Amino acid sequence: MKKTLLLLAAWPVMTTAQSPIVRSVRSWRQANQVRLIESYRDFLAIPNIAADKAGLRATADAILRYMQAEGVADTRLLEAATPGQPPAVYGEVKTPGARHTVVFYAHYDGQPVDSTKWAAGLHPFRPRLTDGSLAKGANYLDWQRIRSAVSPDWRIYARGASDDKAGVFAILQAYAALKASGIQPSINIKFFFEGEEEAGSPHLAEIFDRYKDLLRADTWVICDGPVHQTGRKQVIFGVRGDTHLELTVYGPKRPLHSGHYGNWIPNPAMELARLLASMKDEKGQVTVKGFYDDVIPLSKSEREALAQMPPVEAQLQRELGIRKPERTGSLNDNLSLPSLNINGFAAAGVGEKSANVIPTQAVASIDLRLVAGNDWQRQQQKVIEHIRMQGFYVTEQAPTDAERMAHDRICRVVRSDGYNAQKTPMDDPLGRRVVRAVQAALPEPALLLPTLGGSLPLFIFEQRLGIRPITVPIANHDNNQHAENENIRIGNLWDGIDILASIMQAFGID
To answer: Is the pTM of this model over 0.85?
Structure first.
């Protein structure tokens, strides 16, 4: 294992000054930066939330038209076997004499939005330009400002700006930059843009099975996620899995006056709060029986790679206003463990909508992140057994009157689909090629991370296609993905174009 790690550390590092390819791409990008930013603004204006099938279809059509305009061959929409689902967008570029084929992946769908939570002056699908981070007091800029100069520290705010229309845009512009510069890729390129990642990729396996021959490749490069908190670029060899549960605890059949009935009628919000609190102790350890039992320990090379990551904990505590983290240890050490998170909790009203009532029910959404060794269905079942052990009758449907009279505590559990974690060995030969190509675009070595904290359906890639993907993130770490005020730092978008073009050109060179 030590030999493996030394080999990783010894991979050749080329600076941007040594890479004429990157210099050419950068020159093209600088000459076209105004057009590129305006094009990205228009792309972000297309609604793309997972529940909006019409918006997703319009987004897919826009990507398809762009690829066709760039002369990408065999462009098409790959439909799932289940009718009416968002398609994947596909295209390919064949390079004469190429010995490797790489698929470049990003997803074009986005998380749900609540526009009332976005900052004043922002709307999820009306992109705004700022001269920095709004969290640090930045100002809005008129889009006309980009006709003179574009600062890399400017940002664009919109849903999908970083997660993951940035990946789609950077991949396509990387190819456009090579083509416009007269540079031939060293590989056969395939593009694959998914439309259901934020919904858990429920039909991705169908698409893979249906188009397995079309999608044959040596490896996939996944463009999603943030760079390191220090701003350094990362190459990531694995992702956590993900699944969800929705819990509903029931109270009276109608809302009741809290004065007339308080102290007598059980309050479902209090019952659910106690149930959720029973799932974690004060040190952040999940108390669900067997929650950590099937975790596969990190390999020696993975542990040593984590030890080389720059510490960011103090920086993040200041940045996020948190004096003490939930668990001891480094951020990445804790991301190597499965987690249980409360995504949301709803009962009666708060603030201006607060009323003196005992609500009829309380609902919570739970997010389970998985690591190697966990099975998403087994992990769900562990939580359900924990709920039973707390004295709840568990049902999958709203309780009947007979069930209400037969049980003191009732919890309805709705399971969502999920997928397991995936890992590519850190000494994987194709992964080494990706690292070498990424480093050719950087002034300093890329950081090598065993596992991303976030989740992607890469387990399905390995299971259905037999390949081991490599993830190359480009978004700034403070991009607010999945939340209000999502943004992309323009410099990160530019770096993404450079890096992805470098992979397209350098991956196949021995």
So the answer is: yes
